[in-house]
Amino acid sequence: MTATAGQELDELCYLSAQSMLSLKVSDHFQVVKLLGEGSYGKVMLAVHRKRGTPMALKFFPRQSTSLTSFLREYNLSLSYCTHPSLTRALGIFFSTPSYYVFAQQAGLYGDLYSVIVSEAGVDEECVQRVMSQLSSAVMHLHSLGFVHRDIKPENIFLCDSSCRWVKLGDFGLARAIGTTVRAVWYDSPFCTPEVEPVKEAEKERQRRECEGIEEEMEDIWISVEPCIDSWALGVLVYCLLTGCFPWEESTHDDRGYVRYKEWFDQETEKEEKNSGSEWRPEEENDCYTIMKKKHRNNPPPSQFEGLSPLVMSLFRELLHPQPKLRGSPEELLSYLGGPWLMETEREEKRKAEEAEKEARKIREGSGVEGELVREGRGER
Ligand SMILES: Nc1ncnc2c1ncn2[C@@H]1O[C@H](COP(=O)(O)OP(=O)(O)OP(=O)(O)O)[C@@H](O)[C@H]1O
Protein backbone atom coordinates (compact mmCIF):
# COMPACT_ATOMS: atom_id res chain seq x y z
CA MET A 1 0.00 0.00 0.00
CA THR A 2 1.44 3.43 -0.88
CA ALA A 3 1.31 6.09 1.82
CA THR A 4 -0.72 9.21 1.11
CA ALA A 5 0.95 12.62 1.25
CA GLY A 6 -0.62 13.22 4.66
CA GLN A 7 0.68 9.92 6.08
CA GLU A 8 4.13 10.58 4.69
CA LEU A 9 4.20 14.00 6.34
CA ASP A 10 2.96 12.55 9.66
CA GLU A 11 5.80 10.04 9.54
CA LEU A 12 8.36 12.82 9.02
CA CYS A 13 6.88 14.63 12.02
CA TYR A 14 7.21 11.55 14.28
CA LEU A 15 10.80 11.00 13.19
CA SER A 16 11.87 14.63 13.56
CA ALA A 17 10.23 14.91 17.00
CA GLN A 18 12.96 12.58 18.27
CA SER A 19 15.78 14.83 17.18
CA MET A 20 14.55 18.20 18.35
CA LEU A 21 17.34 20.03 20.15
CA SER A 22 17.06 22.61 22.86
CA LEU A 23 19.21 25.65 21.94
CA LYS A 24 19.97 29.17 23.06
CA VAL A 25 19.31 31.40 20.02
CA SER A 26 22.18 33.83 20.67
CA ASP A 27 24.75 30.98 20.88
CA HIS A 28 24.13 30.08 17.24
CA PHE A 29 22.52 33.07 15.54
CA GLN A 30 22.91 36.80 15.44
CA VAL A 31 19.41 38.21 15.29
CA VAL A 32 19.35 41.20 12.93
CA LYS A 33 15.76 42.48 12.87
CA LEU A 34 12.08 41.61 12.95
CA LEU A 35 10.82 40.55 9.51
CA GLY A 36 7.19 40.34 10.50
CA GLU A 37 4.58 39.11 12.94
CA GLY A 38 1.52 36.98 12.38
CA SER A 39 -1.19 35.56 14.59
CA TYR A 40 0.99 32.58 15.52
CA GLY A 41 4.36 34.11 16.21
CA LYS A 42 7.16 36.34 15.00
CA VAL A 43 9.75 36.00 12.26
CA MET A 44 13.27 37.40 12.72
CA LEU A 45 16.05 37.89 10.21
CA ALA A 46 19.15 36.20 11.63
CA VAL A 47 22.64 35.25 10.54
CA HIS A 48 24.18 31.88 11.38
CA ARG A 49 27.18 32.72 13.58
CA LYS A 50 29.56 30.09 12.16
CA ARG A 51 28.51 30.05 8.52
CA GLY A 52 27.32 33.64 8.03
CA THR A 53 24.18 32.37 6.25
CA PRO A 54 21.21 34.77 6.42
CA MET A 55 17.91 33.13 7.30
CA ALA A 56 14.43 33.79 8.65
CA LEU A 57 13.86 32.29 12.12
CA LYS A 58 10.20 31.62 12.74
CA PHE A 59 9.32 31.68 16.47
CA PHE A 60 6.15 29.90 17.67
CA PRO A 61 5.22 30.51 21.35
CA ARG A 62 5.14 27.09 23.05
CA GLN A 63 2.23 28.22 25.18
CA SER A 64 -0.07 28.53 22.19
CA THR A 65 1.47 26.13 19.64
CA SER A 66 1.19 22.35 19.62
CA LEU A 67 4.37 20.43 18.81
CA THR A 68 2.42 18.63 16.07
CA SER A 69 1.44 21.81 14.24
CA PHE A 70 4.97 23.19 14.56
CA LEU A 71 6.55 20.02 13.18
CA ARG A 72 3.97 19.78 10.41
CA GLU A 73 4.75 23.28 9.16
CA TYR A 74 8.49 22.71 9.45
CA ASN A 75 8.55 19.33 7.69
CA LEU A 76 6.21 20.46 4.95
CA SER A 77 8.42 23.45 4.23
CA LEU A 78 11.56 21.30 4.38
CA SER A 79 10.52 18.31 2.33
CA TYR A 80 7.86 19.47 -0.10
CA CYS A 81 8.70 23.12 -0.83
CA THR A 82 11.21 22.21 -3.50
CA HIS A 83 10.07 24.86 -5.96
CA PRO A 84 11.91 28.19 -6.36
CA SER A 85 8.74 30.08 -5.48
CA LEU A 86 8.01 28.17 -2.27
CA THR A 87 9.78 29.18 0.96
CA ARG A 88 11.90 26.24 2.00
CA ALA A 89 13.00 25.38 5.53
CA LEU A 90 16.74 25.06 6.04
CA GLY A 91 16.93 21.92 8.18
CA ILE A 92 17.38 23.78 11.47
CA PHE A 93 14.70 23.37 14.11
CA PHE A 94 14.90 23.57 17.88
CA SER A 95 13.15 24.69 21.03
CA THR A 96 13.91 27.31 23.68
CA PRO A 97 12.11 27.51 27.03
CA SER A 98 9.46 29.77 25.44
CA TYR A 99 9.47 28.97 21.71
CA TYR A 100 9.64 26.33 19.02
CA VAL A 101 11.82 27.72 16.24
CA PHE A 102 12.71 26.74 12.69
CA ALA A 103 14.89 28.39 10.06
CA GLN A 104 13.62 29.20 6.59
CA GLN A 105 14.90 30.98 3.49
CA ALA A 106 14.46 34.69 4.07
CA GLY A 107 12.69 37.08 1.72
CA LEU A 108 14.70 40.23 2.28
CA TYR A 109 12.40 42.69 0.51
CA GLY A 110 9.21 42.45 2.54
CA ASP A 111 5.94 40.91 1.42
CA LEU A 112 3.44 41.53 -1.37
CA TYR A 113 1.02 43.26 0.96
CA SER A 114 3.37 46.23 1.33
CA VAL A 115 3.78 46.46 -2.45
CA ILE A 116 0.03 46.47 -3.05
CA VAL A 117 -0.79 49.15 -0.49
CA SER A 118 2.07 51.42 -1.48
CA GLU A 119 1.35 51.27 -5.21
CA ALA A 120 -2.48 51.11 -5.33
CA GLY A 121 -2.32 48.37 -7.95
CA VAL A 122 0.83 46.85 -9.36
CA ASP A 123 1.75 47.28 -13.05
CA GLU A 124 0.32 44.65 -15.35
CA GLU A 125 3.60 43.10 -16.39
CA CYS A 126 4.61 42.70 -12.76
CA VAL A 127 1.21 41.18 -11.88
CA GLN A 128 1.67 38.55 -14.58
CA ARG A 129 5.24 37.91 -13.48
CA VAL A 130 4.10 37.32 -9.89
CA MET A 131 1.12 35.19 -10.90
CA SER A 132 3.12 32.96 -13.23
CA GLN A 133 5.52 32.16 -10.37
CA LEU A 134 2.73 31.59 -7.89
CA SER A 135 0.59 29.42 -10.14
CA SER A 136 3.54 27.18 -10.84
CA ALA A 137 4.48 27.04 -7.13
CA VAL A 138 0.92 26.14 -6.15
CA MET A 139 0.67 23.53 -8.92
CA HIS A 140 3.88 21.99 -7.57
CA LEU A 141 2.44 21.81 -4.06
CA HIS A 142 -0.81 20.32 -5.39
CA SER A 143 1.10 17.74 -7.43
CA LEU A 144 2.77 16.59 -4.19
CA GLY A 145 -0.64 16.23 -2.60
CA PHE A 146 -0.99 19.42 -0.51
CA VAL A 147 -3.22 22.49 -0.50
CA HIS A 148 -1.81 25.75 0.93
CA ARG A 149 -5.17 27.14 2.17
CA ASP A 150 -3.82 30.56 3.14
CA ILE A 151 -2.67 32.31 -0.03
CA LYS A 152 -2.79 36.07 0.56
CA PRO A 153 -0.42 39.02 -0.05
CA GLU A 154 1.02 38.84 3.50
CA ASN A 155 2.25 35.30 2.83
CA ILE A 156 4.11 36.09 -0.38
CA PHE A 157 7.66 37.18 0.31
CA LEU A 158 9.87 39.17 -2.04
CA CYS A 159 13.42 38.16 -2.97
CA ASP A 160 14.06 41.42 -4.84
CA SER A 161 12.54 44.90 -4.95
CA SER A 162 10.67 44.54 -8.25
CA CYS A 163 8.84 41.22 -7.69
CA ARG A 164 10.98 39.35 -10.22
CA TRP A 165 11.28 36.56 -7.69
CA VAL A 166 8.58 35.91 -5.11
CA LYS A 167 8.05 33.01 -2.73
CA LEU A 168 4.88 31.74 -1.17
CA GLY A 169 5.36 31.03 2.56
CA ASP A 170 3.45 30.28 5.77
CA PHE A 171 2.42 26.63 5.51
CA GLY A 172 0.66 26.60 8.88
CA LEU A 173 -2.73 25.81 7.35
CA ALA A 174 -1.50 23.55 4.54
CA ARG A 175 -3.07 20.09 4.59
CA ALA A 176 -3.03 17.00 2.41
CA ILE A 177 -5.66 16.90 -0.34
CA GLY A 178 -8.75 15.07 0.85
CA THR A 179 -8.14 15.68 4.58
CA THR A 180 -11.37 16.38 6.40
CA VAL A 181 -11.12 19.57 8.43
CA ARG A 182 -13.52 21.61 10.52
CA ALA A 183 -14.74 24.40 8.25
CA VAL A 184 -13.85 27.83 9.56
CA TRP A 185 -15.39 31.06 8.42
CA TYR A 186 -13.19 34.15 8.34
CA ASP A 187 -14.17 37.58 7.33
CA SER A 188 -12.27 38.05 4.06
CA PRO A 189 -12.75 37.76 0.27
CA PHE A 190 -10.05 35.05 0.39
CA CYS A 191 -12.49 32.84 2.31
CA THR A 192 -14.31 30.69 -0.27
CA PRO A 193 -18.10 31.05 -0.75
CA GLU A 194 -18.65 27.36 0.04
CA VAL A 195 -17.96 28.00 3.74
CA GLU A 196 -20.70 30.63 4.03
CA PRO A 197 -22.92 28.10 5.89
CA VAL A 198 -20.31 28.21 8.67
CA LYS A 199 -20.82 31.94 9.02
CA GLU A 200 -24.57 31.36 9.37
CA ALA A 201 -23.94 28.58 11.91
CA GLU A 202 -21.67 30.91 13.88
CA LYS A 203 -24.44 33.54 14.00
CA GLU A 204 -26.88 30.89 15.19
CA ARG A 205 -24.40 29.71 17.85
CA GLN A 206 -24.05 33.28 19.15
CA ARG A 207 -27.84 33.71 19.19
CA ARG A 208 -28.23 30.54 21.23
CA GLU A 209 -25.52 31.68 23.63
CA CYS A 210 -27.29 35.01 24.14
CA GLU A 211 -30.56 33.24 24.83
CA GLY A 212 -28.90 30.78 27.20
CA ILE A 213 -29.78 27.75 25.04
CA GLU A 214 -27.36 25.03 26.10
CA GLU A 215 -27.84 22.59 23.23
CA GLU A 216 -24.48 22.20 21.39
CA MET A 217 -24.37 22.79 17.61
CA GLU A 218 -22.52 20.36 15.41
CA ASP A 219 -19.39 21.51 13.57
CA ILE A 220 -19.40 21.59 9.77
CA TRP A 221 -16.65 19.51 8.16
CA ILE A 222 -15.21 19.92 4.67
CA SER A 223 -12.67 18.16 2.53
CA VAL A 224 -9.44 20.01 1.70
CA GLU A 225 -9.38 20.50 -2.08
CA PRO A 226 -7.04 22.35 -4.48
CA CYS A 227 -9.90 24.63 -5.57
CA ILE A 228 -9.47 26.51 -2.26
CA ASP A 229 -6.13 27.80 -3.58
CA SER A 230 -7.59 28.58 -7.02
CA TRP A 231 -10.08 30.93 -5.38
CA ALA A 232 -7.35 32.73 -3.44
CA LEU A 233 -5.23 33.11 -6.58
CA GLY A 234 -8.21 34.72 -8.34
CA VAL A 235 -8.73 37.22 -5.50
CA LEU A 236 -5.00 37.90 -5.50
CA VAL A 237 -5.00 38.76 -9.23
CA TYR A 238 -7.74 41.31 -8.55
CA CYS A 239 -5.87 42.80 -5.54
CA LEU A 240 -2.67 43.14 -7.53
CA LEU A 241 -4.36 44.81 -10.50
CA THR A 242 -6.51 47.24 -8.53
CA GLY A 243 -4.92 47.66 -5.08
CA CYS A 244 -8.19 46.73 -3.35
CA PHE A 245 -10.53 43.80 -2.77
CA PRO A 246 -13.33 42.84 -5.23
CA TRP A 247 -15.77 42.60 -2.28
CA GLU A 248 -15.55 42.34 1.48
CA GLU A 249 -16.68 38.77 1.89
CA SER A 250 -17.97 36.14 -0.51
CA THR A 251 -21.48 35.90 0.93
CA HIS A 252 -25.07 36.39 -0.24
CA ASP A 253 -25.36 39.63 1.78
CA ASP A 254 -22.25 41.31 0.41
CA ARG A 255 -23.28 43.74 -2.38
CA GLY A 256 -20.01 43.46 -4.28
CA TYR A 257 -20.07 39.67 -4.30
CA VAL A 258 -23.76 39.51 -5.17
CA ARG A 259 -23.19 41.76 -8.19
CA TYR A 260 -20.30 39.56 -9.31
CA LYS A 261 -22.38 36.41 -8.85
CA GLU A 262 -25.28 37.89 -10.86
CA TRP A 263 -22.91 38.78 -13.70
CA PHE A 264 -21.32 35.34 -13.48
CA ASP A 265 -24.70 33.58 -13.65
CA GLN A 266 -25.78 35.66 -16.64
CA GLU A 267 -22.57 34.78 -18.46
CA THR A 268 -23.09 31.11 -17.73
CA GLU A 269 -26.72 31.24 -18.82
CA LYS A 270 -25.80 32.88 -22.13
CA GLU A 271 -23.04 30.41 -22.72
CA GLU A 272 -25.42 27.53 -22.14
CA LYS A 273 -27.96 29.03 -24.56
CA ASN A 274 -25.29 29.55 -27.23
CA SER A 275 -23.65 26.19 -26.80
CA GLY A 276 -26.03 24.61 -29.33
CA SER A 277 -25.76 27.38 -31.89
CA GLU A 278 -23.65 27.02 -34.97
CA TRP A 279 -20.04 28.24 -35.00
CA ARG A 280 -19.58 31.14 -37.46
CA PRO A 281 -15.87 31.53 -38.11
CA GLU A 282 -16.31 34.50 -40.49
CA GLU A 283 -17.97 36.55 -37.70
CA GLU A 284 -16.14 35.40 -34.62
CA ASN A 285 -12.70 34.36 -35.60
CA ASP A 286 -10.75 34.55 -32.36
CA CYS A 287 -11.39 33.98 -28.68
CA TYR A 288 -10.52 37.52 -27.72
CA THR A 289 -13.11 38.98 -30.13
CA ILE A 290 -15.73 36.71 -28.61
CA MET A 291 -14.72 37.79 -25.10
CA LYS A 292 -14.87 41.49 -26.07
CA LYS A 293 -18.33 40.99 -27.56
CA LYS A 294 -19.54 39.29 -24.38
CA HIS A 295 -18.01 42.08 -22.33
CA ARG A 296 -20.11 44.63 -24.25
CA ASN A 297 -23.32 42.59 -24.03
CA ASN A 298 -23.05 41.81 -20.34
CA PRO A 299 -20.67 44.33 -18.78
CA PRO A 300 -19.09 43.19 -15.52
CA PRO A 301 -20.04 45.00 -12.29
CA SER A 302 -18.46 48.39 -11.60
CA GLN A 303 -15.67 47.10 -9.35
CA PHE A 304 -14.21 45.40 -12.45
CA GLU A 305 -14.15 48.58 -14.55
CA GLY A 306 -10.87 48.92 -16.39
CA LEU A 307 -10.18 45.16 -16.33
CA SER A 308 -10.01 43.40 -19.68
CA PRO A 309 -12.42 40.74 -21.04
CA LEU A 310 -9.47 38.35 -20.88
CA VAL A 311 -8.92 38.73 -17.14
CA MET A 312 -12.69 38.58 -16.55
CA SER A 313 -12.64 35.23 -18.28
CA LEU A 314 -9.80 34.14 -15.97
CA PHE A 315 -11.92 35.22 -12.97
CA ARG A 316 -14.74 33.06 -14.29
CA GLU A 317 -12.37 30.10 -14.02
CA LEU A 318 -10.68 30.84 -10.67
CA LEU A 319 -13.55 32.65 -8.95
CA HIS A 320 -16.21 30.11 -9.88
CA PRO A 321 -18.74 30.13 -7.02
CA GLN A 322 -19.07 26.35 -7.25
CA PRO A 323 -15.94 24.62 -5.93
CA LYS A 324 -16.34 21.54 -8.12
CA LEU A 325 -16.43 23.63 -11.30
CA ARG A 326 -13.62 25.99 -10.30
CA GLY A 327 -10.57 25.97 -12.57
CA SER A 328 -7.15 24.83 -11.44
CA PRO A 329 -4.20 27.23 -10.96
CA GLU A 330 -2.87 25.82 -14.22
CA GLU A 331 -5.55 27.83 -16.07
CA LEU A 332 -3.63 30.95 -15.23
CA LEU A 333 -0.79 29.96 -17.51
CA SER A 334 -2.88 30.27 -20.66
CA TYR A 335 -3.84 33.85 -19.74
CA LEU A 336 -0.28 35.13 -19.43
CA GLY A 337 0.95 37.51 -22.11
CA GLY A 338 -2.50 38.87 -23.03
CA PRO A 339 -3.97 42.19 -21.84
CA TRP A 340 -5.38 42.10 -18.28
CA LEU A 341 -6.20 45.83 -18.27
CA MET A 342 -8.20 47.88 -20.79
CA GLU A 343 -6.13 50.29 -22.88
CA THR A 344 -7.53 53.41 -21.15
CA GLU A 345 -6.87 51.93 -17.71
CA ARG A 346 -3.32 51.09 -18.66
CA GLU A 347 -2.69 54.67 -19.77
CA GLU A 348 -4.28 56.09 -16.61
CA LYS A 349 -2.26 53.74 -14.48
CA ARG A 350 0.94 54.81 -16.16
CA LYS A 351 0.11 58.47 -15.46
CA ALA A 352 -0.88 57.67 -11.87
CA GLU A 353 2.38 55.80 -11.35
CA GLU A 354 4.36 58.79 -12.60
CA ALA A 355 2.39 61.13 -10.33
CA GLU A 356 2.91 58.75 -7.41
CA LYS A 357 6.66 58.68 -8.04
CA GLU A 358 6.72 62.48 -7.96
CA ALA A 359 4.59 62.58 -4.81
CA ARG A 360 6.82 60.00 -3.15
CA LYS A 361 9.86 62.13 -3.81
CA ILE A 362 8.11 65.05 -2.09
CA ARG A 363 6.69 63.04 0.82
CA GLU A 364 10.02 61.35 1.55
CA GLY A 365 8.97 58.44 3.61
CA SER A 366 5.66 59.49 5.17
CA GLY A 367 3.36 56.39 5.48
CA VAL A 368 0.43 55.81 3.13
CA GLU A 369 -2.52 53.65 4.16
CA GLY A 370 -4.14 51.45 1.49
CA GLU A 371 -7.54 49.88 1.58
CA LEU A 372 -6.25 46.38 2.19
CA VAL A 373 -5.95 45.34 5.81
CA ARG A 374 -3.45 42.73 6.98
CA GLU A 375 -5.24 39.60 7.95
CA GLY A 376 -4.78 36.82 10.43
CA ARG A 377 -6.82 33.64 10.80
CA GLY A 378 -7.75 32.25 14.17
CA GLU A 379 -7.36 28.63 13.13
CA ARG A 380 -4.57 26.13 12.85
N1 LIG B 1 10.68 33.51 5.28
C1 LIG B 1 10.33 34.80 5.45
N2 LIG B 1 11.03 35.79 4.87
C2 LIG B 1 10.66 37.09 5.03
N3 LIG B 1 9.63 37.51 5.76
C3 LIG B 1 8.89 36.58 6.36
C4 LIG B 1 9.19 35.18 6.25
N4 LIG B 1 8.28 34.48 6.95
C5 LIG B 1 7.45 35.40 7.47
N5 LIG B 1 7.80 36.66 7.13
C6 LIG B 1 7.13 37.92 7.54
O1 LIG B 1 6.48 37.70 8.77
C7 LIG B 1 5.05 37.85 8.66
C8 LIG B 1 4.35 36.77 9.50
O2 LIG B 1 4.80 35.50 9.07
P1 LIG B 1 3.82 34.27 8.88
O3 LIG B 1 2.71 34.68 7.97
O4 LIG B 1 4.61 33.10 8.46
O5 LIG B 1 3.31 34.13 10.37
P2 LIG B 1 1.95 33.52 10.92
O6 LIG B 1 1.92 33.80 12.37
O7 LIG B 1 1.85 32.12 10.48
O8 LIG B 1 0.90 34.47 10.16
P3 LIG B 1 -0.68 34.32 9.89
O9 LIG B 1 -1.31 35.27 10.82
O10 LIG B 1 -0.79 34.76 8.44
O11 LIG B 1 -1.03 32.89 10.03
C9 LIG B 1 4.77 37.73 7.17
O12 LIG B 1 3.63 38.46 6.79
C10 LIG B 1 6.04 38.33 6.55
O13 LIG B 1 5.95 39.73 6.51
TrEMBL record:
<dbReference type="GO" id="GO:0005524">
    <property type="term" value="F:ATP binding"/>
</dbReference>
<dbReference type="InterPro" id="IPR017441">
    <property type="entry name" value="Protein_kinase_ATP_BS"/>
</dbReference>
<protein>
    <submittedName>
        <fullName>Uncharacterized serine/threonine-protein kinase SBK3</fullName>
    </submittedName>
</protein>
<dbReference type="Pfam" id="PF00069">
    <property type="entry name" value="Pkinase"/>
</dbReference>
<keyword id="KW-0418">Kinase</keyword>
<feature type="region of interest" description="Disordered">
    <location>
        <begin position="346"/>
        <end position="380"/>
    </location>
</feature>
<dbReference type="GO" id="GO:0004674">
    <property type="term" value="F:protein serine/threonine kinase activity"/>
</dbReference>
<keyword id="KW-0547">Nucleotide-binding</keyword>
<dbReference type="InterPro" id="IPR008271">
    <property type="entry name" value="Ser/Thr_kinase_AS"/>
</dbReference>
<comment type="similarity">
    <text>Belongs to the protein kinase superfamily.</text>
</comment>
<dbReference type="InterPro" id="IPR011009">
    <property type="entry name" value="Kinase-like_dom_sf"/>
</dbReference>
<keyword id="KW-0723">Serine/threonine-protein kinase</keyword>
<dbReference type="InterPro" id="IPR000719">
    <property type="entry name" value="Prot_kinase_dom"/>
</dbReference>
<keyword id="KW-0067">ATP-binding</keyword>
<feature type="binding site">
    <location>
        <position position="58"/>
    </location>
    <ligand>
        <name>ATP</name>
    </ligand>
</feature>
<feature type="domain" description="Protein kinase">
    <location>
        <begin position="29"/>
        <end position="341"/>
    </location>
</feature>
<keyword id="KW-0808">Transferase</keyword>
